[in-house]
């Protein structure tokens, strides 16, 4: 099984990439990014590309994929909707246009196309457009994500928050299971979807992600 991963250097992308490399059913992983990753594996290939709004030049390298994991994302802090939309929406739709197979889009808890909150509205609109495509497509909406196995966020404020709140994770997992998952569980759930899992819903919150990962 061939999996294409966008955003493999981010926290979620690192988790998805790790689980792909660990799963024997995944025989080939292609990451797409502006620079190569430090991770190496016999079944891993990095494709360096700058213009994510046009993937046609690298389409041949992404061909015959069984699944596409779109893990790219930026914080909405300080960005206008016009600045936030390309990575969150435009590039995600371009990836869906070029890469075949099961498509898994990493969204976030609270995404809603009718929301008054900018990031939630953009993500919600993207979800709706992807789910309307004539192909297997799923949305994962993690809430609080616990980094595992040395994985860290590239965003400094997120690194600080995860470090400061790590002791709260077991409490949150008991009190609010619908809002807590980990990079490991999220990655496993995404691989399960690529392998043909059919959950009851195509929009998975943290508790559903965790059940699928198990």
From TrEMBL:
Q: Which domain of life is it from?
A: Bacteria
**Any idea what this protein is called?**
Epimerase
List the taxonomic lineage: Bacteria, Bacillati, Actinomycetota, Actinomycetes, Pseudonocardiales
**Matches recorded under InterPro entries:** NAD(P)-bd_dom_sf (IPR036291)
In its UniProt entry, the species of origin is given as: Lentzea guizhouensis
């Amino acid at each position: 099984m061939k999996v294409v991963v966008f955003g493999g250097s981010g926290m979620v992308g690192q988790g998805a990439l790790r689980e792909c490399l660990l799963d024997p059913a995944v025989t080939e992983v292609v990451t797409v990014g502006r620079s190569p990753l430090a991770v190496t594996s016999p079944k891993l290939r990095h494709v360096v590309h700058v213009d994510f709004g046009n993937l046609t030049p690298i389409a041949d390298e992404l061909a015959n994929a069984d699944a596409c994991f779109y893990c790219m994302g930026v914080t909405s802090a300080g960005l206008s909707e016009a600045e936030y939309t390309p990575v969150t929406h435009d590039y995600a739709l371009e990836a869906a246009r070029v890469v075949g197979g099961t498509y898994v889009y990493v969204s976030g808890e609270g995404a809603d196309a009718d929301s008054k909150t900018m990031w939630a509205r953009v993500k919600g609109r993207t979800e709706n457009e992807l789910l309307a495509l004539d192909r297997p497509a799923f949305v994962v909406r993690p809430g609080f994500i616990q980094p595992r196995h040395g994985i860290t966020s590239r965003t400094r404020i997120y690194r600080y928050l995860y470090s400061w709140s790590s002791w709260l994770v077991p409490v949150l997992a008991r009190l609010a299971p619908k809002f807590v998952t980990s990079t490991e569980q999220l990655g496993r759930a995404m691989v399960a979807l690529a392998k043909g899992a059919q959950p009851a819903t195509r929009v998975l919150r943290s508790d559903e992600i965790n059940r699928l990962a198990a």
